[in-house]
Design brief:
Blueprint (H helix, E strand, L loop, with lengths): L1 E2 L2 E6 L2 E6 L6 E4 L20 H51 L7 E8 L2 E11 L2 E2 L5 E2 L2 E12 L2 E12 L3
Length: 170
């Protein structure tokens, strides 16, 4: 009688199961009728030990803490980005005002602007560009305007600057 590559031989009280493969033979001994041997299975211990559960919870907790730290860093970066975007918008607005205004821009001018992230000091400086053509002809009416925004973030001074040319004939 061959079933699943195993040969079963029955004797009184002993079930001998010989494997056809290279493994060692398995012997099962029983005191009851041989028919009950088929119902006896090796009891496998399932479940986890307490130390395994605690180790899993510790690993999970470390992962959650790392995830929380990553979310905190993302929120900080988002806030810093929003703050710098507000400053860039202030510089852009002032540049548009200067370009749209008539006349030569003021030599030096300061503004204090209250943003949602604290006060920003906007400094405007203007000077003639003193540009020349390749044949050494002086170009008149062109001014180099420098806008500088200064603010504090966490007690540390921050600044952004843009430079652009403005042409005013005359």
């Amino acid at each position: 009688m061959q079933r699943d590559n195993l040969l079963d031989h029955w004797s009184i009280g002993v079930l001998e199961r010989w494997s056809v493969s290279r493994t060692t033979p398995l012997l099962y001994y029983t005191r009851g009728p041989v028919a009950t041997v088929r119902r006896i299975k090796k009891q496998s211990v399932s479940g986890f030990a307490l130390y395994e559960v605690l180790l899993g919870v510790a690993i999970f907790a470390v992962g959650i803490l790392a995830l929380g730290r990553a979310v905190e860093n993302c929120l900080n970066a988002s806030m810093l980005n929003a703050e710098e975007e507000a400053v860039r918008q202030m510089l852009s607005n002032r540049m548009a005002e200067i370009q749209a205004a008539r006349g030569v821009p003021d030599r030096v001018k300061e503004f204090k602007i209250d943003s949602g992230y604290g006060p920003v000091k906007l400094v405007q400086k203007s000077a003639p560009a003193e540009l020349t053509e390749p044949n050494n002809t002086q170009l008149n009416g062109i001014n180099l305007v420098t806008l500088t925004a200064q603010w504090e973030r966490g007690g540390i001074s921050q600044s952004k600057q843009i430079k652009f040319y403005v042409y005013r004939p005359g």
